[in-house]
Amino acid sequence: MDKKSFQKFKKTAILIIAVIFLVQKSFVYFQEKKETNEIVFYTLPSQSQTQTVTRQIAEAEEDVKDGDETERETPEIQVSKENEDKININTASAIELQKLYRIGPAISERIIEYRQSYGDFETIEEIKEVKGIGDKKLEQIKDQICVK
Fold first, then answer.
1. What are 48-72's pLDDT values in tens digits?
2. Does residue 97 contact residue 41 with C-beta atoms inside 8 Å?
3. Where do the H-state alpha helices sit in the chain?
């Protein structure tokens, strides 16, 4: 190996080592950043839960206006255990719908557009009318959704 080709080899080796070092440092940086900046999604109360609480507050205010100052327990929202962790496809936002298995932004928007065009879903099977959801996808998400 002559002196000129050795110099070229040496420069190439140094360049490769520098690139590997930079890639490794970048990877560590983004891993640390990912751990500190996690996105948290909060679930809002369903429309029926909000209506129930609003009605109970209105009744309590009416009682106070009428002079009924009897002490009462704070009203509790009754939610059946069966639908507690399920997503109501009639009221869910696009972000909530995207929590479903293999439902991305495009399909979640189609679900919302279908709701706006045709009204609420009567059954969970009706979601198959949305482009991109067939028998297979319904089978995968049916235990995660409900209609109320």
1. 666 666 777 777 777 666 665 555 5
2. no
3. 3-36, 47-65, 94-97, 105-118, 135-141
**CA 118/CA 125 separation, integer angstroms:** 15
In this structure, the number of other CB atoms found within 10 A of the CB of residue 17 comes to: 10
Per-residue model confidence (pLDDT) at position 41: 47
Q: From CA 96, how far away is CA 148, in angstroms rounded?
A: 16
Q: What is the pTM of this model?
A: 0.47
The answer to whether the CB of 145 falls within 8 A of the CB of 120 is no
Distance set, CA 6 to CA 10, 15, 18, 49 (Å): 6, 14, 18, 76
Q: Where are the beta strands (DSSP E) in 57-117?
A: 87-88
CB distance 137 to 79 below 8 Å: no
Residue 82 confidence (pLDDT) above 70: no
Q: How far apart are CA 133 and CA 141, in angstroms?
A: 10
Residue type, position 43, single letter: T
Provide the token pair at 79. Answer: 């939610």
The CA-atom distances, in angstroms, between 135 and each of 50, 96, 125, 126, 141 are 33, 21, 9, 11, 10
Tell me the β-bridge partners of 87: 145
